[in-house]
Write a structure and sequence with these properties.
heterodimer; A: alpha+beta; four-stranded mixed beta sheet; two-stranded antiparallel ribbon; 21 helices; globular; B: mainly alpha
Chain lengths: 461, 454
């Protein structure tokens, strides 16, 4: 561990973030960053489907107060801190936002809202915004790689509140044009606020980590702009550096490995369907099968779902799920629901769904979950026997939306359409999507922000 | 999980009333609040206070909350700024067993919410008592030695519990919401010694105050949080920030013994760990009428821990001069007092003083000195060696400041920042806090109008 502590990555990571220009980003990175941005906004537009969002909005208003920054889905503008709190919560509210799988961390909720608030206040253009959030995402995933979730996760740390502040500080700092030294101080201030543990698992407080992470980065960036100083080496300091305090010394080499050449942010996964990460490969196989074969639900005799042994062990107990939390972890329910409806979305997991007799019978009698030693956690296979004796199959080598099977712009647009449905007129929904997908061409963000504020209540919602 | 210290602490604190506080605890909390406000006024002289104020301004929001001896800010902004001011010139409280400044995290969010919600002085006093007790008791459960070994700095880790408890008390949260507030505080615990020697070490107090405020306000909405943030097997603070800690210590003697009495106050700006040095030097100066010209050398013996933190830092700016044993020893010998003018740029830059310190003051580890004690030996030109040994300084929990001493500190701090009438009014209200109908009246005496603060 001694030689690990000799590496001083904070200054170099800060110089990268402070100096990142739009022109430095490879075309593939820009494309990914745009898709990720659209996906994050889409996720926020689904947030009205969570019970806690309204309560959280009241909190954000009480803590932050009225101000100049737009809040998605309301004409009430809040302070930078208030808007960052509620917009971050909205992105993560119904758990369809991004995940950087190696660190079990959501990235967009922490980074995009404070960056958007600053960009709005300062009248920044879309290119600056996209560059800033790309810088933020890259910093967050690299800090995550350095701390090493393999060690820190089992200890009890939940990463959005820990690496998120770094990403948000980088994005805010880039928009504010911080010098490399100021950026290093911003990272120090971000680290001084890194918090959040799995003690809150099963409660919405795990989502508070994302929201609070966004505010932490905002404060870090704005205070560093005042030339407030902090640790010269927040990452690898032996006494209280991130890699020591939150891990076992971590992997300091990973922080800068291939920086500015390889954009690690492209390995962030987007989530096209609700449900736990381990179910996403199976959902991928189900929809590949539906697209290719269009099986009629009532003609299905039997479905065999194969997953990795560890996935099987974690999930086999959810064969008869009760409540939304268990529905999202139940393979039989998810497969039955998707095959019957040809879709799987947030309305597929309503409270009455567990009791649906047709689904229940199918789950019980026709779906079998099996462990297959030949599969990794990222893979799943589906074998379907029809009543007429035909056999159909599909196999997902990686879940749709993950680096091994990236989401296309079409996929993200489909998700956006589901999230925005009912909240806009067709014309407004189309206009917002068009603007979001070419955010880096926009000289002004005003119309985007106007449309984001204008998202209305969902009929019957 | 059998132990539920978070629940038990929340149950107790959520039902805490003024009547339940023994007289001497009411008086003690009154003293602590008076001292905290004095420290916050002095904090206007902190070099970085303007930077935090600029941050508070940048985050936006209506300027409806009082910043002590300054122009109003938003609720969050005032909490951040007051949190920083209390600790800015290193003259605030110190809980030595956990090396934690407690008041910066507790009093500012309580003041902001009390002002906003129209609370009385009595409500405020109970809330601050709840907050102080929460921090010290969570700290007792932490096992500080193990926590420190992992790099953690107490104010940002255990401090949020105090802000959350104080706010939750003012908001009248029931036991379950109170527990959620504590849990939401713990889910924001942060701050390490990686920042030692930079002002970010003080930002932990400021951010800790804001974390407590947010925890209380989010819990008010009925937002659920983990049931046992302290002792949970996975992600509980005692395991994650320490070695499992001592959960039973959190609630031992709860309501019978008031742990907040173990909080120390300070008469002098300068690091808590070198207050014994100041106590010793001032005692020697007074007893022997020492003149710098007659002093040929001073040896200061410190424990290893204190030496590592305060023995070797340069003293080229105010922030570090306040933490420097050689500088503090020299300037106190010369000026026969220790207040903010001893840390002004001109004084730090005085070449003769600087030379005296470098030539004649030697700071070293002395194995006979424990904790934050000090052994000061002054050698004089007539060949004497004058010795003063201190196990603890003036203001320590074992030798508490008198109310008159705290009032004198308040007046020193307010001089030039708050006019005399307002100072008198503020002191009167703070001393009679339990009878103040509205905290907003106190805030009015402490606030400076926009125009004057510009």
């Amino acid at each position: 561990m001694d030689n690990k502590a000799d590496i001083q990555p904070s200054a170099e990571l800060a110089a990268f973030a402070a100096g990142l220009d739009y022109d430095d980003l490879p075309a593939s990175t820009r494309e990914f960053a745009r898709n990720w941005f659209v996906d994050s906004i889409a996720s926020a537009l689904a947030s009205d489907l969570s019970d806690e969002t309204r309560r959280y909005a009241q909190f954000a208003r009480a803590a932050g107060g009225a101000g100049e920054a737009s809040v998605f889905g309301t004409n009430d503008r809040l302070s930078l801190i208030g808007a960052s709190l509620i917009n971050a919560y909205q992105i993560t509210a119904v758990t369809v936002c991004d995940t950087y799988v190696p660190a079990h961390v959501h990235i967009g909720p922490e980074i995009i809202p404070p960056a958007l608030a600053i960009a709005e206040r300062d009248g920044a253009n879309g290119r600056s915004l996209l560059t800033a959030i790309a810088a933020g995402a890259e910093v967050a995933v690299r800090v995550a790689a350095g701390i090493d979730y393999e060690v820190a996760g089992p200890m009890g740390w939940h990463f959005p509140g820990i690496v998120g502040p770094f990403g948000a500080a980088a994005a805010v700092g880039r928009l504010r044009g911080l010098t490399p030294l100021q950026m290093r101080n911003a990272f120090g201030l971000a680290g001084s606020q890194a918090a959040g543990t799995w003690a809150s698992w099963g409660t919405p407080t795990v989502k508070f980590h994302q929201s609070r992470g966004a505010v932490s980065g905002l404060l870090a960036g704005l205070l560093a702009e005042q030339d407030f100083t902090s640790s010269s080496e927040i990452l690898t300091h032996p006494d209280g550096g991130m890699l020591a305090a939150y891990s076992d010394g971590g992997r300091p080499d990973a922080i800068l490995d291939g920086i500015a050449e390889r954009y690690e942010l492209e390995r962030i996964s987007l989530r096209l369907w609700p449900g736990g990460t381990p179910l996403q490969p199976t959902l991928t196989a189900v929809f590949d099968l539906i697209t290719a074969e269009r099986p009629v639900f009532s003609e299905i005799e039997e479905v065999r779902v194969s997953v990795a042994r560890s996935v099987y062990d974690d999930h086999v107990r959810f064969a008869a799920p009760k409540g939304t939390f268990e529905l999202l972890l139940s393979f039989p329910f998810t497969v039955a629901s998707a095959l019957r409806d040809g879709r799987f979305w947030l309305d597929s997991i309503g409270p009455d769904r567990a009791a649906n007799p047709e689904l229940n019978q199918f789950m019980k009698e026709r779906v079998e979950l099996v462990a297959d030693a030949g599969l990794t956690r990222e893979q799943s296979a589906l074998d379907v026997r029809m009543k007429d004796g035909r056999t159909l199959g599909a196999r997902a080598g990686a879940a749709k939306g993950t680096p091994g099977n990236p989401a296309s712009l079409d996929d993200v647009q489909d998700k956006y359409a589901r999230c925005a449905a009912g909240r806009y007129s067709d014309a407004d929904a189309g206009e917002l999507l068009d603007l979001l997908t070419r955010i880096d061409e926009l000289e002004s963000l005003e119309r985007v922000l106007e449309l984001l504020r204008a998202a209305g209540p969902r009929p019957g919602g | 999980m059998t132990e539920q210290p978070t629940r038990e602490l929340a149950d107790f604190l959520s039902s805490l009333t003024y009547e339940a506080l023994p007289d001497h605890i009411r008086e003690r909390v009154t003293d602590i609040i008076l001292d905290t406000v004095a420290s916050a006024i002095a904090g206007r002289h902190g070099d970085e206070t303007r930077q935090v104020e600029a941050l508070a301004s940048a985050i936006g929001g209506p300027r409806s909350s009082t910043v002590i001896a300054a122009a109003p800010s938003s609720l969050a902004g005032a909490t951040l700024t007051n949190g920083y001011q209390v600790t800015a010139v290193t003259v605030c409280d110190i809980h030595r067993p956990t090396l934690c400044h407690v008041t910066p995290e507790v009093v500012p969010p309580a003041l902001a919410i009390a002002e906003e919600r129209g609370a009385s002085g009595r409500d405020f006093l109970v809330a601050v008592a709840a907050g102080l007790e929460a921090v010290v008791r969570v700290g007792a459960g932490m096992n500080y030695r193990a926590m420190r070994a992992r790099g953690w700095h107490s104010p940002g880790v255990i401090g949020p519990f105090g802000g959350a408890a104080a706010v939750a008390s003012l908001l009248g949260l029931d036991a379950e919401r109170f527990r959620n507030a504590l849990s939401l505080a713990g889910t924001q615990s942060a701050g390490t010694f990686a920042h030692w020697g930079t002002p970010t070490i003080k930002f932990h107090q400021s951010r800790g105050a804001l974390s407590g405020l947010m925890a209380g306000l989010l819990a008010e909405q009925g937002f659920p949080a983990g049931p046992e943030i302290l002792a949970a097997e996975t992600g509980g603070l005692f395991k994650l920030y320490s070695d499992g800690g001592n959960p039973a210590a959190v609630t031992a003697g709860l309501g019978e013994r008031w742990e907040l009495e173990t909080i120390s106050l300070r008469l002098w700006p300068a690091a808590s760990s070198i207050q014994s040095v100041i106590t010793a030097v001032l005692a020697l100066v007074e007893e022997h009428d020492l003149q710098p010209g007659n002093v040929t050398g001073i040896d200061v013996g410190l424990s290893r821990t204190v030496y590592d933190m305060h023995g070797t830092l340069p003293w080229n700016d105010k922030f570090r001069a306040l933490l420097s044993t050689p500088y503090v020893t020299g300037v106190v010998l010369h000026d026969r007092r220790c207040w903010l003018d001893q840390f002004a740029a001109e004084r730090i830059g005085d070449a003769a003083l600087d030379r005296f310190i470098r030539d004649r003051i030697a700071v070293a580890i002395d194995d006979s000195v424990e904790g934050t004690g000090a052994l000061v030996t002054v050698r004089t030109s007539d060949g004497r060696a004058l010795v003063d040994r201190r196990a603890y300084p003036r203001g320590d929990a074992a030798d508490p400041l008198t109310r008159d001493e705290i009032i004198a500190k308040f007046r020193d701090a307010a001089d030039g920042l708050i006019d005399r009438d307002a100072t008198d009014r503020a002191i009167e209200m703070l001393v009679g806090l339990a009878d103040v109908p509205k905290i907003s009246d106190l805030c009015a005496a402490l606030s400076r109008p926009m125009a004057r603060a510009a």
